[in-house]
Amino acid sequence: MIDTHAHIYLPDYSNDVLAMIGRAIDLGIRHILMPAINPDSIAQMETITYLNSGKNDINLHPMIGLHPCEVKEQISIWGEQLWPSKLESWLLEFAGLNQYVGIGETGLDYYWSMESKEEQMLSLDIHFEIAKSTNKPIVLHNRESTQDLLDAIARHQNGSVKGVWHCFNGTYEEGMKAVDLGFHLGIGGVITFKNAGVAEAIQQLPINKLILETDSPYLSPTPLRGKRNEPAHLDHVQKKLGELFGLSQQEIEAQTDRTAAKLFSL
Ligand SMILES: [Zn+2]
């Protein structure tokens, strides 16, 4: 099983990080992908990777990116004029390294960070350029910015761009637009929520474009909703996806693992 999106390096886990990883191993998770949110994430991801080093039963993979909700704060550190070039050189420092399996997370968030719309778009453009130059998948966040995000993907798609729309919770039509633009959809705890309507949309999407994620520590699946999320909760998401497609737990695991492993070259 592969958790393609988990911020397990955050201080939320500082009291039980090894136990949390142990529970993931016990569930059968073999890879956890960690999207960075800002420059502080690097040291945090290195620490957790170091703590877990020497164990071969699970692989922790860092990714490099500036979360859209962190763009404004980072501009205040890097400076109004210099920030785009500082962002580019920071991304380039890590993006080419073998252990960094993706570019993200980046994207747009018009719910929490409406005031930095233009800067988020410039940041997203810079991430796309790095993803293209390194041929690595890009990890996209979306909140109330669907059309702008789809437009950005279309603008950058030159036939080689690949990536994932993480924590997909849109309509069937929106999902198909992303798929037609060459993207995968990250499926998380939201499909277990009643009345979200997301499960019905996902059920119609091509199974070979779907990958699993927890988005830990956020978005715990039902019946753990409201609690801190962690990779060991991924089985609730996997089980629900299997039910929607009429596949056994083994079949859905094999299918989503294959897709994720190929997308991120694991
Ligand atoms: Zn995330």
Briefly, what is this?
This protein has 266 residues and is α/β, with parallel strands linked by helices. The protein is 43% helix and 13% strand. The strands form two sheets. A five-stranded parallel beta sheet has the order 4-5-6-7-8, with helices on both faces. It has a three-stranded parallel beta sheet with strand order 1-2-3, sandwiched between helices.
Can you tell me about this structure?
The chain contains ten helices and eight strands. It has helices spanning 17-27, 40-51, 71-78, 83-95, 117-134, 146-156, 172-180, 198-203, 234-245, 249-263; strands at 2-3, 31-34, 59-62, 103-109, 138-143, 163-165, 183-187, 210-212. The longest helix has 18 residues, at 117-134. The model has no long low-confidence stretch (mean pLDDT 96). With 266 residues, the chain is of the alpha/beta class. A five-stranded parallel beta sheet has the order 4-5-6-7-8, sandwiched between helices. It has a three-stranded parallel beta sheet with strand order 1-2-3, with helices on both faces. It has a single domain (2-263), classed as TIM Barrel (Alpha-Beta Barrel). Bound molecules: zinc ion. Residues 5, 7, 35, 105, 215 line the site of zinc ion.
